[in-house]
Amino acid sequence: MRAIRRGRLAALGLTLALLTGACASSADVATTKTGPEPTSASARAAKAGKQLAANTLVPLAGKAPTPELPVTVGSSDGRKVTVTDASRILPLNGGVAEIVFTLGLGERVVGRDITATFKEAKKLPQVTKAHDVSAESVLSLRPTVVLADTDTGPKEAIDQIRDAGIPVVVLDVATKLSDVTTRTTRIAAALGVPAAGEALNARMSDELAAARAAVPEGSRPKVAFLYMRGSAAVYLIGGKGSGADSLLDAAGAVDAGTQAGLDRPFTPITTEALAQAQPDVILMMTKGLDSVGGLDGLLQIPGIAQTPAGMNRRVVDLEDGVLLSFGPRTPLVIDILVDRIHQG
After folding, report:
1. Which helix (H) or strand (E) holds 236?
2. CA 127, 132, 136: angle at the middle one, nearest 5?
3. Residue bearing the bigger pLDDT, 10 or 5
4. Rounded-to-5 percentages of helix, strand, coil across the chain
5. Rounded CA gap, 43 and 118, in Å?
6. How far is CA 83 from the centre of its chain?
7. Measured distance CA(3)–CA(130) in Å, rounded
8. Each residue of 188-222: pLDDT tens digit?
9. CATH fold group of domain 2-212
10. CATH homologous superfamily for 216-341?
11. How high does pLDDT run on average in the chain?
12. E strand or H helix that includes residue 237
């Protein structure tokens, strides 16, 4: 379940105006433009699909920002942390790593955790084993600042890293889209590049608004998010706080689990729960769908075939490292969801 929680979102709230008269190191920060933006849902989804298939990030345009340090920032474990050097950054969460790279600081990143699956991070040494941090692996990379979240563990490993004199900034786990703005702002502040954080928040907010504008008028399908790992006999349905509920709302859909009264993020799937949820569409992670034998295997799970989604074979899957990452690629996820969940 830590994989679910750590992959949750971060997100894209209100557009933040870029500061004028910013300091010299921030002057080159700009958003990246990749040509005219498509307006139809299908065109936006096609463009988003190509970018996700390439598994790469689009950093902010212009020269990489120069950190202005030292800074002292609040950490979600109740500490005040002073960062004096951002030359060797180690993010211990895939969504956090996406933000660091997109801010233009990827050349300073020295390692990754297992959830950082995008192409730019693949070459970096991995410091986690089955989602647990190896303090020895972290210390061997000599990071000057570590970015973690409240689910990062084990606690003993984080304490060992901190006891070695390395600043560790802990962030709240993102559980809804609006958390992404706060998360980006906090990461940019901790790394001494606040103006880059403002620029990235503005870009993501614009992208999300454009995705939402493509939602067909009057369409409000019910979508159930299913988290499955067939080999481990894990079969869960998402409810309130799963992270998927926020994504589905942004994409103009109703989270079927939440509407059915599931007040926990994840609940074991039962035929009764599915009968009550009655989803029009099922949303899954790609590896989860593969783990149960694809669409045909999914329909063999009791209760699935009897839902409208099962009867109409309406299943949408997205890559595990992207769907609940709540990072700079989340607007692409919304583009794809808007197109695929509203199809007849």
Report:
1. strand 234-238
2. 45
3. 5
4. 40, 15, 45
5. 23
6. 25
7. 9
8. 999 999 999 999 999 999 999 999 999 999 999 99
9. Rossmann fold (3.40.50)
10. Nitrogenase molybdenum iron protein domain (3.40.50.1980)
11. 89
12. strand 234-238
